[in-house]
From TrEMBL:
GO terms for cellular component: plasma membrane. GO terms for biological process: cellular response to phosphate starvation. Keywords: ATP-binding, Cell membrane, Kinase, Membrane, Nucleotide-binding, Phosphoprotein, Transferase, Transmembrane, Transmembrane helix, Two-component regulatory system. This is histidine kinase.
Amino acid sequence: MGSNFAYRSLSDFMRSSTLRWLVLVASILIILILAVQLFWLNKVYSFEQKTFNTNVVKSIRGLYEDLDLVDTRAIHLQDLIEHPNTDNFLFRVDSLYSEDTIAFYLKHELNDFDVLTDVHIGYYNAGNPNFKNTAYITAAASRYSPDAVNLSVVKRNYNYILLYFPHRKKYILQQMNFWFISSAALFIVLIGLAVMLFFFYRQRFLAEIQKDFVNNFTHEFKTPLAVMKISAEVLLNDKITTQPDRLRKYATIVENQTQHLQNQVERLLQIARSDRRDLPIQKKQVPVKDLIEQAVAKMQPLIDEKNAEVSIPIEEEQNIEVSADRAHLELAIVNLLENALKYSAKPHIIVTTGNEEGNIYISVKDNGIGIEKKYQKSLFKKFYRVPTGDVHNVKGFGLGLNFVKRIIDAHHGTIKINSLPGIGTEFRLILPATVNS
Ligand code: ADP
């Protein structure tokens, strides 16, 4: 048993610390990858924006080459084109062609340089501070219909043409579709990996639990079987018929051990059965004192065996009633008593009941080994056993308190623990006085 406990504590330690590291490292990696991905998306957006601007400028230059709009020998082309804000471009024109001609050539230039989004064209006349005329070029694959816009006037003392791209941002984002899709795919893959990691780890965790359970199970059943085997050998001895006292003694041992095994099997079955569904609770008004006395009576053989002292300092007039499922609540008390007996060297157990803030409590207090604070929150987990190095010979499955918790949960109650290592433990079951079913 000693090695079993040592193995348990080590594996418990491995479990929680490995899991913590795994989750931490995986989270940091995921955040890092996402940050890098966001950084790249931003970069690609800036790049696409620049490309768009360059292509518009190239188209305008193309237009200058197609038509003699200005005397390009006198001024450098670059000085003729302005970019007053993100969606607008303007360029100087001296000799005026018809608007249709300009729109026709511009459309071709924009197409040639892959500026495939709609554009409003405004013709500005320096003599008249408003736009003389406007036109709209719809790109070949455009999904938009032209909407009326008031082009913003930029004051200049020469004529110019203003290009306003109303869907510039959407167009650039569309160009980035591939990047968005690949980022989403990467994100999905990362989530998938995290989920797989989680299931893989849980599988391993369950396998460990199963291993522990089989270990405990073997220990729990080995001792009674060994005792029964020895008793059977004694009973098979021919001389036993002449020793009726001895015969009775060994027959009783066999009976007790059989009873013990039967109880254990019954408990396991009950837990396995109740595992699949909620506990079936049939509530009745139950006198708590009677319930406690019955539970103690059930534990009498173990109490005698351990030479334990059990006191129930409850006055008759304190025999309060609680609305509960009698069999289940009794089983909960039996489990607490069994633990109090198991985890105390010279058990002195006090069982009390009473009212507390409108609720009814049942308290089982022992003078046993106690439970360190850090383990207290895990006690009610299935298969959990405190990894203690002090007591090696206490058998159990780590199922008792889990079952107690499920019973109390089904009654909408709570459990409080008061425990000091080396001094003792008190488990307090708190049930609502009026239970709504
Ligand atoms: P087990 O079958 O191991 O007793 P339980 O679920 O009943 O399983 O209890 C879980 C663990 O809680 C035990 O292994 C033991 O370490 C600790 N424990 C429960 N009751 C007591 C108690 N009265 N005193 C000290 N430790 C206790």
